[in-house]
Amino acid sequence: MTMKKIALILSLVLVFSCGDDNDDFILPEDTINIDFSEGITFGRAAKACSTANCISVFKLTDEGLFKSNNNGAIPGDGIWTFFECPFPVNATQTSISNDVRNIARGVRDIPSTDITDAELFPMGDFFILEYTTPAGRKTIQYRNTGNFVDKRVMSYLEFIIETTTFLENLDENPPATCL
Hints:
By secondary structure, this protein is of the alpha+beta class. It is built from three helices and five strands, in the order H-E-E-E-H-E-E-H. Strands 3-2-1-4-5 form a five-stranded antiparallel sheet, covered by helices on one side. A hairpin with a 2-residue loop joins strand 4 (125-133) and strand 5 (136-142). The chain is globular.
């Protein structure tokens, strides 16, 4: 009789511990593995480009939102450079900052790619998302979100597209001198 009770208790523990783990968003306690001093880099890029504004990449760090000064080409080493000063903090930037940091958990499962890989998106625009963890830098490249099955991942990556477009349409550069 006690063996049946033990088996029942173990079964119940397994059932309740293997339930839905609320896998929709990275929780604040999960973000400690993302290096926010390095930031989250996101935006639009193109490998083949004939104009000066082919690239519109931004980096969100603890210090603010920075704009890339690599506006004509993807850097050969794949490392983006940014203006020294962030955009001035305003309500829009605060909202963007909070939402960019709310990375969908499923993004962690997307394989990392090499931004300098000439065979991946050789022509035309594509979007990027990069962040650094103790395991190294993760780069995700995509043209649209139609290839992603998880709706939360799709929603987050669509948000990155919309945010990039919004920031591009502002057509602003950060201040020349930092405050």
